[in-house]
Amino acid sequence: MIVSIPASTGNTTFAKKQMSAKTPKESRTVVTDLVLPSETNPIGNMFGGELLARMDRAASIAARRHSRRIVVTVSVNHVAFNKMIPLGSVVTVEANVSRAFKSSMEIFMDVWIEDRESGMRSKANEAIYTFVAVDEMGNTVPVPELIPETKLEKERFVAALRRKQLSLVLAGKMQPNEATELKALFS
Ligand SMILES: CC(=O)SCCNC(=O)CCNC(=O)[C@H](O)C(C)(C)COP(=O)(O)OP(=O)(O)OC[C@H]1O[C@@H](n2cnc3c(N)ncnc32)[C@H](O)[C@@H]1OP(=O)(O)O
């Protein structure tokens, strides 16, 4: 997904404010919607592609709120379809920026479904996408730092560098011997 917002007002105070470090809760994005018949497979469960699209939209909003720039999906790093999501389910995608690098942001998504009678939520899926902030010409631009606050945010922040290196190695954009954080796991 590509999301566009006005990139600059030409006002330096505005630009500085855009670049100050932010916490995950400042860009947290929660999207709740039903599963309709047109979004299901022949056995009445939600299509994986529909969920991927919903997650892409939620993640792009979180990345845009964090960076206040145009953001594009550069990589879908991890998706786990752990649980079927039946027709009529109420599905909530919660997207949090887990780490910001120079121009890229890792977005961690937790997907929940809600029991109709009890209202209890259970975790159905999770996914990790990477977005990059760009200008109107498509050139990468810097993003604000992320300051994790909770224990979970701190864990995801630390692991994000390993995931970035793994993603870059798999994409052929980094040599395995340069992936120092990844190698440290095995030493
Ligand atoms: C048709 C479709 O693609 S539909 C999906 C919509 N998305 C798009 O259209 C995006 C298409 N891609 C692009 O325009 C370009 O690849 C860009 C602008 C995203 C990146 O351009 P690049 O020349 O690769 O820039 P560069 O190599 O500097 O990478 C930019 C950042 O992305 C990171 N990155 C690049 N590829 C990956 C990857 N596979 N996994 C994780 N991070 C990645 C880089 O590490 C870098 O991060 P940093 O600046 O935070 O250190």
From TrEMBL:
A GO biological process held by the record: acyl-CoA metabolic process
Record-annotated HotDog ACOT-type domain positions: 25-137
Superkingdom classification of source: Bacteria
Annotated signal sequence range: none
Any single GO CC term annotated in Swiss-Prot or TrEMBL for this entry: cytoplasm
Keywords from the named record: Hydrolase
SUPFAM superfamilies, alphabetized: Thioesterase/thiol ester dehydrase-isomerase
CDD domains: BFIT_BACH
InterPro entries: Cytosol_ACT, HOTDOG_ACOT, HotDog_dom_sf, Thioestr_dom
GO MF: long-chain fatty acyl-CoA hydrolase activity
Stated family: Belongs to the acyl coenzyme A hydrolase family.
Identification of the protein by name: Acyl-CoA hydrolase
